[in-house]
Every structure is written in C-alpha cells, then in structure tokens.
Amino acid sequence: MDYFEIMKILGFIVTVFVFYRLMVYERRDKTKGHYTRPAWNFFLKKLYAEYKIKQKQKRNQLRVENESNRYEIEAPKILPNEDSSDSQQIYGTDQEGNSLLIKFTRRRHRVAELWLIMRLSNGHVYTFADHPNTKIVNATPRIFEGSGLKLECLRPYSKWRITFSGMLRRGIAQDITDSEENLHFVRMNFIWTTASNPVFWPNDWSPKLIATSLATEKWRDGKWMQLMTKKDSGGYDQYGSCAGEVKVYDQDQSPYVEGMLPKIENFELNLPGIRQRRWGPHKNQHLHRTGVLLGSIENGCAFEVGAFSHKYGLTHSQFGNVLLPNGDIYPIDWTDFNLAALGEYQNHLPEATIVMIQAKKLKLTVMVNFKNNTKVPLYGGTQNESWNAFIVSIEIKFNTLNGRGVAIFWYPKNIREFDIQEIPTKIKRIFNRKDLPCADKLLMSFADKEAQSVFVSGGKGSSLAIMRVIQETKGKDFLDKRDRSQQIVNALIDQVAAKPLKKSFRVEMLMKEGVPQRGRQRSGSLTNAIFPDPHDFDVPDYHVPQGFIVSVSAFMRHLKREPQIGKLLLELENVAYERTVGDLKEICIKVQEAFKSSKLDKFLIELITQKLNQINYDGSVRFAVRSSGVTEDNEETSAAGQNETFLGLKTYDDVHLAILKCWASLYSYQSVLYRKQHIQPVVSSMAVVVQKMIAAEAAGVLFTRHPLNGDPSVVVITANYGLGESVVSGKADPDTFFVKRSHKDEVELLGTKAGTKKFFMEMDEEKSTIKESQINEDQMNSLCLSEEIVLKLSHLGVIMEKFFGTPRDIEFAVTNTGKIYLLQSRPITALNNFTDYEIIHENDFAVMNSHEVTTKSNVGEVLPGAMSVLNQSLFGEGMDKAVAVDNFRKKNYFGLYRYVFVISHHHLLMNVTKLMFENASDDPGAVERLSSLSVYGCDIYEKYPQIIDYGKDYRSYVLERTSAMLSVMLASLFKNDERIGEAREYLENVKNKFSRERLEKLKTSSDICDLIENVQSDLKAIGDTHMKTSQNGMLYQMVIYKILAKGANTLSSDNLNDVSLILSSLGNVESANIPEMIREIASTIILSNKQEEFLKVDRKDAVEWLENNCEAAHKIFLNFLKRHGHRGINEMDVISKPWERQPEGVIDMIKLNVSTLAAPSSGKISKTPTTEEIIENLKTPLGSIAKFFMAKLIPRCQKGVRNREITKSFCVANANEMRRGIYYLAEVMMHEGLLPERDLIFHLSFTEIKDIIASRDGKHIAKAFRRQKLFPMLNTLKFPEMSFGVPQALSNDINNNNEAASEGSVLVSGIPVCGGIVTGKACVCKSFADANQIQKGDILVTFGTDTAWSPYFPILGGVCTEIGGIISHGAVVAREYGLPCIIGADSATYKIKHGQKVTLNANNGRITLAAE
To answer: How many CB atoms neighbour CB 284 within 10 A?
Structure first.
C-alpha cells in the first residue's frame, strides 16, 4: 500500500470522526423537563438538516394539478391498524364573535371522536349532548358521518358540505350529564369553500423550521430524518370560509302538537378559517402533547402556529403558516412559540402572550389574549389510553390589526376519572358475494339470509327479511361469525373506499355480478347492512307477518318465458330514452297488459302453493301481495306509491294474478316516468312480497324523526282504525301522536292530535279485496292507539333506526290483542336534501374578510343575470385561471379557488380587491382613477374612499407586490394582429371539432366529454387573445389619460368629454354593424312596399315570409345570421339561445325598425372624423409635443377598442360552438338514459356530468332540478354597484319614490361617455324582456346592455345604464350613433319611473325631471 492510499484512508477516518463529533456527539444531556434543548453543534446540524429536508421535499412533492389525484387524496383513508386514524378539522370565526370548530376523527370498528363547539355572537355556546366526551360508537364507516354530523366532499380541495341535524347542549358542561336541560334541536347547513391551495405536511412546510426541530434533538444514528414523520402519516392545511345558516329550535315542543314548528332562531354566518386533514397513527400512540393557535384577521390574513411534542423523538417541533389577503401562503420559517412556556400544565394558562413569527420576509407580532372563561374541556380514548384537551377563544392583535381565533391544547392523559365507552365487538356484515342466490332460487322465506339482499328481494322484501331475523333472535344472534369469505369482501370494500370520491363505493357495487337486472342503483337496505352490537339493545316484542318473497330471479325467469314482453320492453326503453318516436304512455299500457295476460309457469305456481299452504294452515287466511322493486325504498329515492299493492286476497288464484299485476305495475306510466326522472334504468326488475294479511285493530306510519325538520327528539306516529291503507293513501284524517325522545333514547308521550277519522279500511268479507267502512261515533271521538302501544312503537322505531343506521319511516299494524306487526321500513329520504340556501350559495367564493370588494359592473354587461352551473364550470373557472396565471403571475394557481372572477348567488362578479388593490398605489392618481372608470364605470376611489384604506391594509401584507399587470400590458403592445389571426384559426379549429359530422362519429357521451375537455386549450387561447387586446387598448387609454390630466390626480369634466370624443370616433366597430344590418333589412322591406304586410306576419312565420315575399331582405337576413347569428341576449352563457337558434328575436327588432322608420335608410353611421379633427376639437389645451404624441396614440387606442370588439365576438362564437357540443351531449345522454330532460344539462357542472356518465349518480339530477327551479328567481337578482364583504342581493321591493321631486330635480347621476342633451320619455327596462316597450325617441334606462340591445339604439333618444365602463358595449355603440349616454347611474332602474319625462344631460352626467 503506497503513501497516497494510506492518507486517503486516514482522511476518511478523520472526516467520519469530525462529522460524528460535530453532528452527533453531545457531551451532556441538555433537556428542560421533557423538552430537549439545543446543543453546541446546533447550527451545523441545522444547516445540514435543512439541506437534506429540501432534497426530500423536492422528491416527495405532492401535486394537485391532476383532478384524479385530488379525488384520491381527499378520499377517506383505509385504517389498516387499531391505532390508525383519519381526521378532518374545520375552524372558522368572524370578527363579531361567531365561530365554529368541528373535528371528526375516524377510527376502526365504527368508532369516531367528534368535536363540535359553536359560539354565537349572542353569547351562547353549543356542544354535543354528551360533551365533554367525544367518543361515539355508531359512526358510518368509510365516510365522515356520525351523530347527525356529516362532512361531504363536493369538489376536492374546493368545496365541502357540512351538515348537522341533532341535539346540542347550550352551555359548557364539565362532565357528562343525562339532563335534558338546555338541549336544543339544531340544524346546520354550511358549505366550506377554499381560499388557497392546500399546504401538505411535511412537503410544503418550512425546511428551516423543520430543521430547527431536528437539529435540537440527539442524532443517535443515520435514521434521524425519520423523526420528522410517522409511517403512513400525512395531511394538509387549507384556508377557506364556512358560509351557511344555523337554525336553533326552541326547547318548547308544544307547537309540534298543534301542527306547527317551535320558535326558530336563524343565523346566517360567514366564518373564515382553516381546514386541516391528518391521517396516520392516533395522537395517543406517539404524542406527549400539542398546542396550536388558529387566527383570522380583519384584513383577510389568517394563520396557524403551534408545536407538538413526541413521547419518543422530536420533543418540540414547531409548525405553521400564514395566509395573505391575495391567497398566497407563506410557511413560517421561525417562531418563538414554546410549548414548555405555554399551557404545559392545564390549569396554568396565562391571560396573554406574545408570539413572534417570521414567514419569508414577513415579520409578525401576534399578541394573544386568552379568554379563560371560555375554556371548553374535551376527552376521549380508551381506559388504557385516554386523552384530554381544552379549547380557549382568543383575541388577537396581528401587528396593528384585530383578529379572533382559538387555542387548542391536547394532552395524552385525562386529569379526571371518567367513564369511557369501550370499543364494541367487531361489526360483521350480513352480505358477501357467495351469499347471492343461484338463478333457480325463485322463492325465499324471510329467514333466508340471501333474502336480505335488495337485489334478490327488492327494497321492501329486504327490510322485511332483516326485521324478521331481528324479531326471531331478539337481535342476540343476528350477526354471523366472521369467516374467510367475509374478510375477502371487507378487503374489497376497503379497496373501493380508497378509490376516487367521484366513483361510487357503495357495497352493492361489489355485488353487481349475478344480479339479474339492467343498470345499477343505490340501495338503502344494502348500504346499511352494518349493525350496532345487538347486545346493547333490549328489543321489544314485535312480529313480521308470515310470508315469503317471489324473487327477482322469478321475475327474470318469467321474462325469458314471455319473449313478447321483452320486445315490448326494448321498445319502451327506446321511446323513453327518445331513441325512437312513440307514445310512452301507450307503450306502458301495452307492457302492463302483456304482463297481466301472461301466466305463471306451473313450476312457480307449485312453489307458491307450497308456501301459501304453510301460511294458510286452516284455510281462513287472507293475503297481502306487495311490490318490491330493486330501486325502491333506498336512501336517495323512496319510489313510494309508484308500484301496486293488493290487500285482502282470498284465493290462491287471486295471489297468482296479483303477482302478475305487481310485475305489471313496475311499468306503469308513472313508475317508468319516476325512474326516468331519477336516471334509474327504466327497464328494471322486481321482487314481490306475499304475506299473511293482518286483521288490524289500528294501523299507521311511524317516523323516527319529525318528518318536516328531522328533529330527533320527536317521534311522530299517524294511525287510524283498521288497515293502514287509509293512512298511507292519505284518504283519511288520522290520529297523530307526538312522542318525546331523550338523547339517551328514552321515550314519553308529548301530546296527541285527534283526527276526524270518518272511515276506516277493512277486509271485504265477500270480495277478495278491502273496503271502506264508516267509523262509529265512539271511535271517532277516541284515539285509536293507547299510550302503552304508542310508547312501545316509539321504542321499536328507535331500535330500528339504530339497526338500519338511518331515520326510518315504518308501517305497522296493531291487533285487538295488542300484538304489534311491522309491515315495512324505509329510510326518510328528504332529511339531508340540499336547502334552498345551499343551492343558491353552493358556488359562492370564499369571503375572508368584510373588506372584500366585489362588483357586477363590467362583467354584468355580458352576463347580466345568473350564470348557469355548466357555464360556471366551463368558462368561469377558465377565465379566472387565465387572469390569475397570466396577469398576476400565480404560478401555482390550479383553479381550486376563485381569484378575480368570482361567483355569488350564481352571478359572476369581479373581485375589485384582487384586481385593483395589489397593483394600485396608496395615493391613486389620474391614471388609476380613469382605469376604474374604464372598468367599473365610476371613480371608485372618490365614490368609495374607504377602498383606499382597505387597499393599504391589503398591500402591507403582500410582499411580492409586482408590476405584473403593467408588464402584461406592455407585452400586449406587440403582435396584436398576429394574435387575432391565431385566434381566428383557433376558432375555426373549434368549429371543425364541433361540426355535426364530427360529433355524429362520437358514439357515447363519454367520448363527447373527452372532446369538450380537449378543446379547452383552444378556448383558453381565444380568451387570452381577448384579454391581450383589451389590455392593449387600455394601455393606450391610460397614456392618453395621463397626457390629458397633465399630472393632476383627478380628471376634470373637460378631460372626460375629451376621452368621450376620442372613443366616439372609432368607426367600423363590430357590434355597431348589428343595428346597421337590421336597419338595412328594414329599409329593404320598406323599399319593396310590403311593410304593412310584414308587420302583420306572426314572428314565427316571418323568416319564411321573407324568403317567399322579399328575397332581397331575406338575403341580407341570412348574411346577418351568418355574421352575427352566434350572438344574442346573455350571449356568453351556454344556457342562452343565440339568434341562429331563436331568430324570432331578430324578427322583433326588424319589425320595430320597420314601424319606426319614416323612410328607407341605409343604416350607415355618419363619417368618422380624422385624428387631426379630433385633436382640434379637444377641450383640454395641449402643447405641440402633447399633440404630436396624441396624433400617434389616438389611432392605436381606437384600433385597440375595435380589436377588443372583434375578439369579444370570437369569444361569443367560441361559446356558441361549445353550446353545439353541449346540445349534442345532452341528446346522447338522453338516449343513454342519463338525462331526463335536455335543458337540465345546463344545471349540472361538467364534473357532475362526468360523474353521472361514470356512475349513474342520481343525486346530481335531483340537485339539478332544484337549480332549474330556482334559476328564474336567481336571474332577477340585482347587486349594489360595490359590495363589501359577503355580497348581498338588493331587495326587489326597493321603493324609491320620486313623486315629490319637482321639475329640474336630479334623479340620478353617472359618468358621461357620449355628450349631448335630450328630453324624452324614460323607458325603464329591468331586463331585456322589457325591451318590447321601447318606442322611438325614448331614453333607455336599464341595468346594462349587451349585443342583443344593439338593434334598438338607432331609434333611441339617449341611454342610461347602471353599470358599464368607458369602453363597455353601451358606451361604444351609443358613441357610434351620437346618442347622449351616461353609465354608472347607481339604482337608476329603481329611482326613475317608467314613462316619466326626463332630461338626460350627458355633458354633466345627470338625469333630471322634466316638465310634462
């Protein structure tokens, strides 16, 4: 070995030794209690750790660009071990003292830990009835649902629905109590909406902060990096806002007895805050304690800062991040938050503390005042591993701003003894794939295990089978022992649960093999085939009438034997799905007749006879035959009353015929229509239940919760003498019994309400049916059920709700000996439906503070009304993403939250805060003021001076204040003509893709969805071009404004008039060509001397009349449709019909022009002045240098505005091509049975459409019908010129009485955009539907104008709009026709009365009352 080799070895040994001494070896144990203190080599270790952490974060970066990844990460996690957990925590607070904290931690075996603490500004605090215990043992597996609380993902990382319906205790309990005092029924409906991207732990957290924690600890070996996280653990934080309503019901339940609801306190809340998701080992397994502060600040900032301490490992690991008002999140790089000094002992929390935070260059001082009188204790766990926590409200001083929040401190052991519910025995499942019947098993008894499957027995048969087994075993031996096949099924279920949320992962999806039916459906019975431990319940005596089930297999066997029925069913399906033309009602009748005229085969009759003999042992039994469809009585659709039931049957032949009639009823017109409306397969299957008829003394229906509001503290029973048919059919006015149910499920009679009960139903002694009989006077004046029976029934209802897992609607019968029979049990389906409030606000953006400023101005011009849900998902999100990425350089913007173009009440609004605050100065000058005039139609800084202060607060926390907007505008100076050419090519490409020939080659709705997704890049390119051309014109306008203002911060009236003059001389504007062509058509008709005949023609026949009677006008009309047919009212929304689809609108405008033209007119606009003439006519005196620059700038500015109109037309044409694709998609989905109505597609988001195609999810259809119903109301909503905080629609009852106004009184003021003075009648049009009121010479007063209004401009005397900018449609076209015009006249449609004579002075921007 040579000298060099020896030195290499020695060098390596020395290096290792030095590394060990510097990085690992520590000479003495540096600890403070449980917490390790930094050693002498801390800084070296920190530098090395930070380097390694950055490498690891780069490798393990989680991305959310791909939508499928979002579904996968958001899905509930598989819990592989006993110590596994999966939790969601949502916190939000406003600055008035309202707050909500929810935490849902899923554990194995249906165990969960729930936190719910709601504080209201009135001082009341609400918690769970069992508070402070957090543990529940009856949670719904694989989703976040239990104890009335449900967290439902609507859109991954964007929207979560939070609902609660149950009992909450008012006040803070220190120990569990059975007291009913202060318990209130509360309903909460919130939608959590994100305001940021998710921040993943540990990949997105600060390497510096993590390195600090790691460097503090001893590094005993090379595995020190594993201290950072536990195996299979992870999570993320995301800021957003909970918006919704809370209803607190009064404790006095007596109104229920009177048929009313108790007094309700309503609260409408918007609570900015944070959502946190964590999965991995439960805290009990590895943590010593945790502490965290969550805060929300008045300017829109929010923060999380805290630390956790492991039992073994990191003894003090800090974490946190800060949300800025612009949506950026900065991880905290350094903080002095210290667990050892804060809440180490539970009873020694200080009154106040100061926490220093540094996040990037942002340095924050957070002063925290703990409101110790608000401390809320919580505990949970097991006897061996208990935990304790407490929650305290805090008031915050965030540098100089105020805020509110919460402090959460968690400890591994409880400080007091308490009774913890033990984890129950492992829950077994009834069903597995091996239990499914063979095809030849035609009849089953209720005791057969396979009878519990809805695919075998239908909804009704399945619930009866389950109730029969519970009855016979008293629930004690109800569940079978777990076997290998069961473990396989459970593994399959867990795999499905781990799949994306958009895929259905219900149990029955695993059982579709061997199911003899077409399509798939969701079943309440099967979904809830998981039961609580039966040993926890004392099941009262009840009976299920003897009987059996004619299975679905028997139904399918009958179809095979009757091929003519199969042919009719195929025809029915084709007509129902509009594949062929036919009368659906008539075909349904044919199918029913075919069933009724067919015969049961002898083998089946023999089997039925054997079963009937077992029931009819003495020959005196009467029978009930009930339909049991596989799609009825499930959690989403009950299908109640859709299929037939036959009662009181005497003979076996009657039973045979009734079975055929039940099968036939599956294809009654109402039943088929019901399934079509819920996108269930119209060709479905059915079982039939045959039972012994019970001679009931009384019968009725029991609801385990109040059916109107879902109050779990009230059980409602309706009953009448005799059979229950009189109650179920609604023919009789029954007795009603109200039973109070405690939160411990004890029952007592609350009150009764006697019905008139004029008749009852009983079995007809002579006929094979039932009959109506009169009730005697004694029975009429007495209640049909005793208190004892009522309480027994109520107790049974509670037990059944526990077993089935959902609130139940139960039919029962009581004999004269007091025996109780349960005849049916179905879920109450309407309790978790979306409320109107949720439908209206489901897509609202997250409002993080009361300083958020939004407006309908500008965007209201092209989208004046509500925006369809489909349009929101196709265009609204794309527009917003384009602005955020291109204009504000948001590199990591994935469209999870709205930035500039936001939604409220399904209206598109513009976020002034994001658009203006980030790039404006603290002292806005003339350019910024004129910029606001161009965009919003008013000087927002002068009209709303508080905006300047809001902007200062906003910008003080935005570190990366960029000149992004300016740089984008500068980039727009170049290659505009090339961009427009490229956009035209993109548009042609889109037209080719959506041509009828191309579309007809796509055979499935899935293929069409793929096409729509593929053209998104083309659509974005066209939208980007429009933005660039708009910015180009805006930039030149800003320079011109600067020259005219001569350095002043405000603009004079002369400056405004000069701007109006420059922009009024555009010439050849795209939108101005529309009225020109309309006027040309009208003049051509007049020249043909056929105007009188044309005016008499019906609008629907006018196009044909033009073709036959005025060929020249018809040719111009066709050219008009070719050039402008893609345009119309509300033209940027795919739900609207353009002129090419609805030419009657164009005909109306032609008729109006024909009737108002005294003589033929070319329709051409007067000669456009030259640039030199414009400069000479400017009122603002300019020097020679200024004139030189103006001569260069004016033509470019005018070209920019013209280009803007051209690219706007491209965008509208683009939307129209997309509309073609959507119409074809709706047509194909109709043929596939996935859409009940064509127009319903516009009320579905694109994600929902894909979900329907993938999983036939009917809940989206139900929601779409609700949206469709509310859309006309939403379309009429109006908003203030500027909204601060949560946008609120204006009341439609605004009454601005100006009758007392005298001549010359100013009615409204606005911004003049085209000078002149005119006096005339005010024509107030609150929407385009009122445009038919316009007469020649009228002064139009409306909310805003788009292209559809253009043809009316030639006959107007002047224009006044509530919204719009200097280059808005109304302003541009008014200037082309020289019409006096003002914009930004706030509430003009309310302040001016239709028909009033007014004077519009567009020189000073005022409308005054004129003498009549």
So the answer is: 19
* Tokens, residue 713: 């503290």
List C-alpha distances in Å: 1365 to 565, 930, 1345, 1353, 1408: 66, 10, 11, 18, 22
Residue 732 CB coordination number (10 Å): 23
What Cα–Cα distance (Å) separates residue 825 from each residue in 704, 715, 803, 812, 835? 11, 15, 11, 9, 25
What's the predicted TM-score (pTM) here?
0.88
**pLDDT in the model for residue 65:** 61
In the numeric block, which tokens belong to residue 859? Answer: 């965007």
* Of 701 and 934, more confident: 701
Tracing tokens 């037990």 back to the chain, one arrives at 799
Instruction: Mention the CATH class of domain 433-692.
Output: alpha beta
pLDDT digits (tens, 9 = 90+) for 680-692: 999 999 999 999 9
The span from the CA of 843 to the CA of 241, in Å, is 12
Q: Is the backbone peptide bond immediately before 202 cis, with ω within 30 degrees of 0?
A: yes
| Distance in angstroms (rounded) separating the CA atoms of residues 248 and 254 | 16
Cα 940–941–945 angle (5° rounding)? 110
For the CA atoms of the chain, what is the radius of gyration? 36
Tell me the residue type at 496: V
- DSSP code of 1007? H
- Other Cβ atoms less than 10 A from the Cβ of 1404: the count is 16
CATH fold match for the domains 433-692 and 1306-1409? no
Instruction: Measure Cα distances from 484 to 481, 495, 496, 513, 580 in Å.
Output: 10, 17, 19, 20, 50
Q: ∠ CA 569-570-574 to the nearest 5 degrees?
A: 115
CB atoms within 10 A of CB 425: 10
CA–CA separation, 492 and 434 (whole Å): 14
CATH number belonging to domain 1306-1409:
3.50.30.10
Least confident of 365-379, 994-1008, 1193-1207: 1193-1207
Per-residue pLDDT tens for 838-869? 999 999 999 999 888 999 888 888 888 999 99
The yes/no answer on whether domain 698-827 falls in CATH 3.50.50.60 is no
End-to-end CA distance of the chain: 118
Q: What are the distances in angstroms from CA 273 to CA 308, 374, 1197?
A: 21, 19, 45
How much of the chain is helix, strand and coil, in % rounded to 5? 40, 25, 40
Contact criterion met (CB below 8 Å) for 34 and 309: yes
Give the integer Cα–Cα distance in Å for 88 and 104.
5
Strands 901-904 and 853-855: unpaired
pLDDT one-digit tens code per residue, 1222-1267: 999 999 999 999 999 999 999 999 999 999 999 888 889 999 999 9
What distance in Å separates the CA atoms of residue 507 and residue 522, rounded to the nearest whole number? 9
Residues 6+ apart with CB under 8 A from 584: 572, 575, 576, 669, 672, 673
Give the three-state DSSP class for 938: coil
For residue 952, which amino acid is it?
K
For residue 642, give the DSSP letter.
S
Phi (first) and psi of residue 201, to 5 degrees:
-100, 130
Integer CA distances (angstroms), 343 to 34, 227, 292, 849, in order: 14, 24, 11, 30
**Where do the structural domains in the chain lie, given as residue ranges?**
3-59, 67-411, 433-692, 698-827, 851-963, 1073-1164, 1306-1409
- Report the pLDDT value the prediction gives residue 919, as an integer from 0 to 100: 62
CA distance 140 to 133: 19
Using pLDDT thresholds of 50, 70 and 90, give the confidence band for residue 1034. confident
